[in-house]
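Exercise 7.
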Amino acid sequence: MADFAAHLDRDRLVGRLSELVQTASENPPGNELAVARLVEGYCRSLGLDVAMHEAEADRPSVVARWSGEAGPTLGYCSHYDVVPAGDVRLWAVDPFGASISDGRMHGRGSSDAKGPIAAALEAVEILRRAGADLHGTLELELVADEETMGFKGAGYLVEQGIVAPDIAIVGEPTSLRVVRAQRGACWIRITTNGVAAHGSAPERGISAVRHMAELVLRLEETLPDITHPVLGGPTVSVGTIRGGEKVNVIPASCTIEVDRRTIPGESEESVLATIDEAVEVARKRFPDMDAEVEVLFKSNPFEVGEDSPVVRTVAQSMSEVTGRETELVGFRGASDARFLFEAGAEVILCGPGDITLAHTARETIDLHELEQAALGYAVSFARLLGPREDS
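Solution. The predicted structure, written as tokens, is:
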């Protein structure tokens, strides 16, 4: 590790991150072309085999490979699209200025997730300068579209068979903790159908809103009483509601959209069973309830065991770099890790940055932690692609 540390260049690392932050790549609308070209240039300067792949015009993802001797493929996946900066008046600094104060870089994308990308690029630079030999392939999967669910970025690369790593690290702001499990998401639209009538005579109609009000209360009631050691339990929340046409008309229709987060062991079928149970409980009060249920989107939860080589290796490497034991945690949100897991990879998330600052007007990254991430990644890459015990 000491040899690797000698090759870490803070100015180069921070300089790349500054250029990345200054190259706006807000999604929506998804203007990632300029930042993709910047990343492509960095990867070519590192001597990697680089290709760009587009699911949609001018929204490319970069795949850059360093192939050594025969061995597994280690994917490092992170995204260079960012959420919109929003009202600039809420920012104390220019959100794309990459200003530095008190040892932190400020700006949209500084931690989510251009900081992890800069750290991974520096890790490759360290390995190159240290003359590391890889027993396998290191594959940088630097992608567009993660902030709008990733189907045109990592999802496209997996779907097309462009990437299929054996093991993977996903760069997200985890404060250098190792995420070994992630919740899934199931977005569901529920519509109750009623009968319209004049508002002065509600008994002549059937209020779809009244039925929906009862159903909403039952969704939490029928949530399964289960838990996961690092993810906690499943959750359900109603994100939107629309119903009725006019204040003096009994509403004939009401629609909600439900965000249902899942944990390992749950499936789309089991989730829909709990929704059906909620409908049946609501029918005890309103036997004439007419409800339709439609799945809009789903992503599966996943977990990797504590004893998995990728978990142990990355946790040990980060511990050695930071001088403290690396915490193993779960990730409550969604990330591109789900695509790589479903492609067969043993995948974890780990990166510099504080997730609680992401998507806010206070987004920053600690530059010392950024350096630790670069060194920790370098050590992890070298160990995961080191000589096999039987060689």
